[in-house]
Design brief:
GO terms for molecular function: monooxygenase activity. It is built from 10 helices and 18 strands. The chain is of the alpha/beta class. The chain has 2 domains: 179 residues, FAD/NAD(P)-binding domain (3-Layer(bba) Sandwich); 169 residues, D-Amino Acid Oxidase, Chain A, domain 2. The strands form 3 sheets. It has a 9-stranded mixed β-sheet with strand order 3-5-4-12-13-14-11-15-18, sandwiched between helices. A 6-stranded mixed β-sheet has the order 6-2-1-10-17-16. A 3-stranded antiparallel β-sheet has the order 7-8-9, with no helix packed on it. Helix 1 runs parallel beside helix 3 and helix 8 runs antiparallel to helix 9. The longest helix has 32 residues. The protein starts with 6 loop residues before the first strand and ends in a 12-residue tail after the last helix.
């Protein structure tokens, strides 16, 4: 095909950037990755989940090492705190298979698969522009390079996206997500949470928000009994509060069943982050010679659990487009036709899930299996999400 030997520059060397680099190499392109950080990204240890079929496809295709540790579970358990008490009430279970991963281990596996690409660390891109002679230019402090394709995999503040959509701004949701990971010692003595987490991922509903909990591998040869507990908690923070760790612990104490509150409020974290929830969607995922991937193309509310998932699917789409197209421009138009509407769908889905689970939460204490299944169907409104499989 005409794309074989094409020069492809990737702006950003995180999960999206590495995945796109693998796609380019597998399709026969000459790939260069420009990563601004001069350190290793593998030490980032927050949790993510991906659909099991996607994980298998990435392993079979050579994007991921089959030996990369994961912590697959098949069921979602819904809990809330009994009113006036500190005990937990389980009110629903749903088939919901996910493959939880450690962000750092996933990046490490993708990075290892970029063999054949040039990967420059500590080389931030200062600008990208169209080349009057055709193609695109990527500028760094070291100079300027010309490419047939430039992939913007540079996150939610994408420099590359500014070329395609200079006026695009994120839309704030009005609430916040706290993410954290806790070592085994923080939860090993809590028998019931441990039993649930070994076979399922858990949602805890409370007024004005909810929390998601699941286990992820620790890496470094650690076994299943040494996994990390990963969580994401959504709520509206108090006005003027800057004590992020203190507020998430207060939320846990006020709203979680006792054992879960003990884990979050008193456990020593291995990592914790906090950021306002927002979303955006580029009107085009590609406009030759530029292509956007991952968060550069669109940021969805985290309820969809599609950040890394979308980046990995973007890479598979790009590889197919490069393999089946007669030119780089044709490949990017193919990519835009497939990935632009998918990004828009995920943004809208994230907004519906946010309204249902944070902005207009139901009375979780009154929910049962039937009402949860009906609530999920109404929230999805006919669209698909691997997190809500088989709610019929």
């Amino acid at each position: 095909m005409a794309v074989t030997g094409s020069r492809m520059g990737v702006v950003g060397g995180s999960i999206a950037g590495c995945a796109m680099a693998v796609a380019g190499v597998r399709a026969g392109a000459e790939v260069t990755v420009h990563e601004r950080s001069d350190g290793e990204l593998r030490d980032r240890g927050l949790g993510i989940v991906i659909p099991p079929p996607l994980h298998r496809r990435l392993v079979d295709a050579g994007y991921l090492d089959a030996a990369m540790p994961t912590a697959p579970v098949a069921t979602r358990v819904w809990l809330t705190r009994v009113p006036g008490e500190r005990s937990a009430r389980e009110f629903a279970r749903q088939p919901s298979a996910v493959t939880p991963c450690n962000w750092g281990l996933l990046w490490q596996s993708l990075r290892a698969a970029t063999t054949g690409a040039r990967y420059h660390r500590g080389r931030p891109v200062t600008s990208v522009a169209r080349d009057p002679a055709g193609g695109a230019l990527v500028r760094t402090a070291e100079g300027e390079e010309a490419y047939d394709i430039v992939v913007g995999a540079d996150g939610h503040r994408s420099l590359t996206r500014q070329v395609l959509a200079p006026d695009l701004r994120a839309s704030p949701a009005g609430y916040t997500v706290w993410r954290g990971t806790l070592p085994a010692g923080a939860w090993a003595e809590h028998r019931r949470p441990l039993e649930l987490l070994r076979a399922s991922w858990v949602t805890i509903g409370f007024p004005g928000g909810h929390g998601i909990f699941y286990l992820i591998p620790r890496g470094g040869g650690a076994g299943p009994d040494e996994r990390l507990l990963a969580y994401a908690i959504y709520a509206t923070p108090p006005a003027g509060s800057h004590d992020e760790a203190g507020h998430v612990r207060q939320l846990a104490d006020e709203h979680f069943p006792r054992e879960w509150a003990d884990i979050v409020a008193r456990g020593e974290h291995t990592a914790m982050t906090c950021h306002p929830v927002a979303d955006l969607h580029a009107p085009l995922a590609a406009d030759p010679p530029f292509l956007l991937a991952g968060d550069a193309a669109g940021v969805t509310r985290p309820h969809t659990a599609s950040g890394a998932v979308k980046a990995l699917q973007d890479a598979l789409c790009l590889e197919e487009a490069l393999r089946t197209s007669a030119s780089p421009a044709e490949a990017l138009r193919h990519y835009a036709r497939e990935r632009t509407p998918e990004g828009a769908r995920l943004v809208e889905l994230g907004r519906r899930l946010g309204r249902a689970q944070v902005e207009q939460t139901p009375d979780w204490t009154a929910m049962d299996q039937g009402s949860v299944d009906a609530w999920c169907r109404a929230t999805l409104a006919g669209t698909k999400s691997y997190l809500y499989a088989d709610t019929d």
